[in-house]
Amino acid sequence: MHRAMQFLSDNAASVHPRVWDAMRAADAPQPPYDSDALSQRLDAAFSDLFGRPCAVLWVATGTAANCLALATLVPPHSGVICHREAHIETDEGGAPGFYTHGAKLILIDGDGAKIDTAGIDAAIGAIRKDVHQVQPQAVSVTQASEYGRCYRPDEMAAVAETARRHGLKLHVDGARFANAVAHLGCDPWLACQGATVLSFGCVKNGGMSAEALVFFDEGLADLARVRRKRAGHLQSKGRFLAAQILAMVEDGLWLENARAANAAAQELAGAASERLLHPVEANEVFLRLSPNEREALRKQGFSFYDWGDDAARLVTAWNSDPTAVGALARAIATL
Amino acid sequence: MHRAMQFLSDNAASVHPRVWDAMRAADAPQPPYDSDALSQRLDAAFSDLFGRPCAVLWVATGTAANCLALATLVPPHSGVICHREAHIETDEGGAPGFYTHGAKLILIDGDGAKIDTAGIDAAIGAIRKDVHQVQPQAVSVTQASEYGRCYRPDEMAAVAETARRHGLKLHVDGARFANAVAHLGCDPWLACQGATVLSFGCVKNGGMSAEALVFFDEGLADLARVRRKRAGHLQSKGRFLAAQILAMVEDGLWLENARAANAAAQELAGAASERLLHPVEANEVFLRLSPNEREALRKQGFSFYDWGDDAARLVTAWNSDPTAVGALARAIATL
Amino acid sequence: MHRAMQFLSDNAASVHPRVWDAMRAADAPQPPYDSDALSQRLDAAFSDLFGRPCAVLWVATGTAANCLALATLVPPHSGVICHREAHIETDEGGAPGFYTHGAKLILIDGDGAKIDTAGIDAAIGAIRKDVHQVQPQAVSVTQASEYGRCYRPDEMAAVAETARRHGLKLHVDGARFANAVAHLGCDPWLACQGATVLSFGCVKNGGMSAEALVFFDEGLADLARVRRKRAGHLQSKGRFLAAQILAMVEDGLWLENARAANAAAQELAGAASERLLHPVEANEVFLRLSPNEREALRKQGFSFYDWGDDAARLVTAWNSDPTAVGALARAIATL
Amino acid sequence: MHRAMQFLSDNAASVHPRVWDAMRAADAPQPPYDSDALSQRLDAAFSDLFGRPCAVLWVATGTAANCLALATLVPPHSGVICHREAHIETDEGGAPGFYTHGAKLILIDGDGAKIDTAGIDAAIGAIRKDVHQVQPQAVSVTQASEYGRCYRPDEMAAVAETARRHGLKLHVDGARFANAVAHLGCDPWLACQGATVLSFGCVKNGGMSAEALVFFDEGLADLARVRRKRAGHLQSKGRFLAAQILAMVEDGLWLENARAANAAAQELAGAASERLLHPVEANEVFLRLSPNEREALRKQGFSFYDWGDDAARLVTAWNSDPTAVGALARAIATL
Known about the structure:
- 4 copies of one chain form a homotetramer.
- Chain A is of the alpha/beta class.
- The first copy, chain A, is built from 13 helices and 10 strands.
- Chain A starts with 16 loop residues before the first helix and ends with a helix.
């Protein structure tokens, strides 16, 4: 596969050189698991980033981050309200059911794969308060959403307030949180305000194999540590995961990379504004493209996923080649 | 921590340069998950190594490897026979219970944390064949054992035959399989013969974050792939795990590293033969050492774990420093 | 509560005298669990009823019957296709997630809470065949459905054939199977043809505390027996459950009771044909009734559940009092 | 089987006439599940019995009672300390693993299948306080034990205090609690003092299909109610279970029956004092009996279980026939 022409996903992009450097620097011997000096720096790094106390664990994948978070928030007999197209529902192979021991995802709709106050209220209103129906104990939102849509600070605040009002915890799946913050241009906390726990993604943004699970309710982190071990996710050379995460957040690389990916997506969007299925806010571009049009683009060497019968999904990454992006933009414009 | 004087564990040692090189070479873009060219090479590499068809998955930790293996072998309502001091029983934070959905570890005794035919037969003989008692469906052995003891080929064959006779699958926890094979000097298959699945360790042997789960019953591997995703262990940049494993096995690095670690352990053992709690076969040395003696060694800069009140565990690694090993050997000899 | 005016549910009705008699007759000492003579007769009784070999277990509740069935049919990482309003989805408190260890209910729509071939095909067509999406391994249908609708023999055959074509097992939730067969007037097997396992309800039909789990794939029954014990559902005096079931099926009491309940429902339906939300086939009557109309009926002493804002659900039972049924029918007709 | 000669178990004995009467009286219609008037009386009945506030649930089996209790007390990643021969470990088909989602039974020894302070302290002392080892959060004791031994009030107090000191909850498996209290002659609370929850057995003591789960920490009962439904144990005609329990406890039938069973056991014990493996305190008698001696007794028509190669277990029940008991006592005495 020729990297330059690849718009399939950001999830297999190359690792950023500064991440590599940090990993190499971590090779010196350290205590195992998460007692090394790098792992010990995570809490402070994220407390700085978010301007409030955080307790942070590394894990290897977004699925593990999300599902450990959910398992920490809710007991097996309860439910989690999320969008019908949330990643935890559609693309995690049933991992939420595994980690939570069978808790139920309570699915609601919403434009752009985002949920809102009315949707949450309606879902809860439809549930009888008895032992025959599963009672939700958390809400999970995705920032940016499966369609690359971002919750604005006021939207996030409204969701958080609604969750709080119903006595529910709030999980934010931030596999592309960097892209959301880069788009919103706001303080990172405002993009996830009210969250009990945030899955802070790195792998899609220039990392190799580390995501950060950020607990704003620090008391829950110890429980997550126990469950991380129980899930086989406590790596003995955890310093290499901590190194990746610190490289991303301590010097702003996470936003730098996200801005580059977002800019490439904007360039593609600008060339195809009348084809957009969703406004482009992060690094995903959903375009109406007929089978013939997709075929034409592929013949020119571009790769991407079909999205149903008449559309395609293009994903840019931190290292999307400007020449290729420009070429694809022109190719779309001239279809 | 000064690496040279560290005999705490092999689990946090540095990553071997050839592993680093392989990882860097894997940075070029590839399809995600395990559809990259490196991951696709694993089956062949291990089929060569073991002289028979294998289906191989990478996972990040030994706990995940072991517990995915067990969950693939046995249903939730069944049991797994293992030694009372097996890692899956004592040090995996209940992960077997999590992965298998509550299957029972049926614990038996045996010298050196090894089990044998008589032990398996006795355990099975004590279980009524009814629904009130949990019925075993697998046996798990550790090669090398928690005390660094190895199953000789004839011992492994006897265990495998006993398992087969009772209709049980066989799992081999090979977190230190390399050390066992280096000690036994036999064909690798003979060291795990009869296994349904082998957890083939790399992390303790110069790897960073990859273990290989080797299915000799290839039909089970697809089930393990589904469960790996469900456990959040399917990394999108899996090529970096495959690269580590291939670096270990394709050119014999796994045995080279294990021989170095074993040799260092032998040097320590030779200096303390009258203190040994267990014969030294792999890279772990269990020594009778009084609190005062341990204190004396620590004052000289050596680090290691206490083993109960009157003993210590010393673990060597692929990169144990010869000078430090020699110094420690002399220090013990002159206590 | 005055029984005669009660149309809330059939699930708390009195126990039929012949069931009581059978239980008293079972009081003589017998071996425990399901090794008593009555439990041993279940297989033959249902093999007679269905004209094919069956293996049958008693359990205490419909939820346990359904969920033991599902857990026997599918592994934890898989899914079960069912209607969005199926009892297993809406009213079993998450028990399917508990029993199956987190398998996913894949929800589809369909008129009258019934599903059909097109719905199953569409659901399966929408699932990518990869490890990221949960793959179904069974279909569950309810006969009669949550809205008292019955699958005709040809409809059941079509569902079964569709399941078979996709390699899926078929579960039939027959909490009101008797009412369905009474309505259809067909051979019992035709009302569940192609099922792998049937939850055969007794409690709503004059029983006290026993449902029959009927395996047409007899090889699965032993697995269900192990799981029944593991779920704490193996009663030591199981003869009293077997007695209830035999009293229902050996002399046709199950159909006799169901016909009585269905006839009462028909009488109500006949008095309110223009108000019916669903055709009345079994013993449930869903009527458009305004809040004022419901209030008026309740003032006359009738009890029933609201069904949303503008409707009510009336359920008849084996012992619905003809006088009360007639009175209610007239009261509705004269609203 | 001729009841009179049966000493196999108390678990399949006939149902006491007063229990039958109470069930018949409960046949009048009532609201479903546990909202009927009888179920609503349980809390008060047990609060009277124990002289302190209780919240009480019925369930159908002792296994369900024990395992619901454990699942309410401890999270999946934790452990429960119990005797190596406790029923939850040896005879519940892995139900504790199912209900608790894989929590670990941490097994300790103790004379007569009883545990004590030293055993609990030693078990906890051996567990490292890290995420690699499973941490206990509860203790479970059996009153009377698997060998029919009773915890005296001071022994129970010591166990409870030890549990409290370590921050552990306390579960008492009282499948034969009545027999224990009948033997001890103490206030019922003293026989389970300090318990968080008690499984109060009825089935072995003249009941049919109901055990009481008694929460002394009332706040936990609501959680148990949710889990009871999720486990398929919420019967719609729950009034028949409540009726059984009330018949046992409201007029002292539970102690009356237990005293009868205990007296029969004492008569057997008195005839064989030199053969006793354990002091006889409740209704189980473990006797050294050679194969020939057992054969001789069986030829006279007595039935009982072998207990290993050279012993037998005789269990008396509330309705053990005095003539048969006397005959068996004489037969043993004259062996």
